[in-house]
Amino acid sequence: NDYTAWSCSDPMSRPLRSSPISIVLFTVVATLAVSWLAKSISTGSSNSDRLKEWQALDARYLGKSKGDTPPARLDNYKYKTNDYQEVYDKSWLAGGYPKQSCWGCRFAPQVITKLPFHNVLDAGTGNGALVRLMRDHGKSAWGIELSEAVLKSECPDLLEKKVVEAGVLTNLPYASNSFDLVFSSDVLEHIHEDEADKVVSELVRVSRRHLFLSISLKPHTKASADNDAEANRHTMLRPRSWWEAKFAQYGAEVNREMLWAMQEKSTRFTAAEKDDCRTAGSKTQGGEFQVCVVNSTWLVGKPEQANVRRDRCMVGDELEPWFFSFRKRR
Length: 330
Fold this sequence. Notes:
The protein has 330 residues and is α/β, with parallel strands linked by helices. It has nine helices and eleven strands.
């Protein structure tokens, strides 16, 4: 008996025995470990190489890192508006949007620290508050807005200096490859279905490299700040996959790393904790999806406005705001 000399008081005295099964198991585990390690090293190297490649392309395609030169313009540009400008004139001036509200101001500082850029277009700038924030951070920021009324009312100084201007996203006045970054916060859900291709193609056209947007996916909207009636202002609700495919169609690839860093997710909410669930989307364009309200405290707009909300919409495991980040293929 090989174990007669072994005692509980001295476990190290137990002789070692190597069965064929243990040898096989050890070999399999060791092989898997080596394979995993090699793959990890390879993946890490691959990710590092990709990062270096992107940084090199950024350096190649981005514009000057200083100065405040106005963006180049199209020679044949003519101002146009659309048939729903009046709706947003009223929304800005009659209480639909609070004065000096700035949806993108809550997350713009994070974008500034995470993406390399100097000049930026705020597409759908509203009252110009985001342009001011970007300029406070030393960026050469410019804005275009459908509602000329809000520009005249809330940022006449920027309008006079031609830092912001009235216009539509289907007809941008800027030359191609004019901006390091095209930024847009909760705007594209307001366009009409027949405008989607032109709007996306124009945003990609004027970008040199980066596009960062928040696009609302929720059908829950208000007629005014103190009126819960449905306003039907979110006219273009499509799932993430549809928007990403649309931008890819016009030459922009998803920046997965930026999405990973920015998009808030949660799996803690049970079905019972999800309320006011509504169906959004189109069966023929990307499919329908469910949007629910959950109890999740969050800060909206500029921190100094202290606009803290408890109700928050959710699609799948993603909480609003829903971010979209792209790199233009060159």
